[in-house]
Write a structure and sequence with these properties.
Length: about 190
């Protein structure tokens, strides 16, 4: 009796999956053979089950790319198949775990705590809403986890993943509709 080939029974390698955008805890992102520097949360990478509102951690897991938000006054919409919508000055994102709109878009001013989406800096000129803690949102398990524009010095985020704007635009143009951001506590290493 022959034994099954171990390569055929193991889990698929996400590095070969054209829909996988791999993010490593040491600030590297791999997508279709491209290796890009990225910024992560100031609290490091933490398993999603341990993620808490305000801890600054980037949650580990596989997160679908839900939609793109962009500043139409600064940016043309990026290419690619993901749904997109312009950001307006009154757009916010509720980050109050006690509010019914937690981890959802809201209109400002809003009576509960909410992040301002129309920022003075460039960080939210281009934002990808990730499918973290959204189906349905669990109060306190983390909100506003996005893929967005990085600061020039790659300073840590509040829990998001961030890339330089040209690389983010290129990634979005190439990513398929079923793309997902896979954040791992593993380190890629190297420079």
């Amino acid at each position: 009796m022959s034994r099954p080939d171990p390569a055929s029974t193991s889990a698929p390698d996400p590095r070969r999956d054209p829909a996988a955008i791999l993010v490593f805890a040491d600030g590297w992102l791999l997508f279709r053979g491209q290796r890009l520097r990225c910024a992560l949360g100031r609290g490091g990478v933490r398993p999603a089950r341990e993620k808490r509102e305000g801890d600054g951690a980037t949650p580990a897991g596989a997160w679908p790319l839900r939609r793109i938000l962009y500043r139409a006054d600064k940016e043309p919409p990026p290419g690619g198949p993901l749904p997109r919508a312009p950001i307006a000055p009154e757009d916010g994102w509720c980050d109050d775990p006690a509010d019914a709109a937690y981890n959802r878009p809201v209109r400002l001013p809003y009576p509960a705590s909410a992040e301002v989406m129309w920022r003075k800096d460039e960080l939210y000129d281009l934002v990808v809403v990730l499918g973290h803690n959204d189906a349905p949102p669990v109060p306190g398990a983390g909100s506003a986890i996005f893929l967005h524009v990085a600061r020039p010095d790659f300073a840590p985020t509040a829990g998001c993943v961030a890339l330089p704007k040209p690389e983010l635009r290129r990634l979005l143009a190439e990513a398929p509709a079923e793309a997902r951001l896979i954040v791992t506590p593993e380190r890629l290493g190297g420079a």
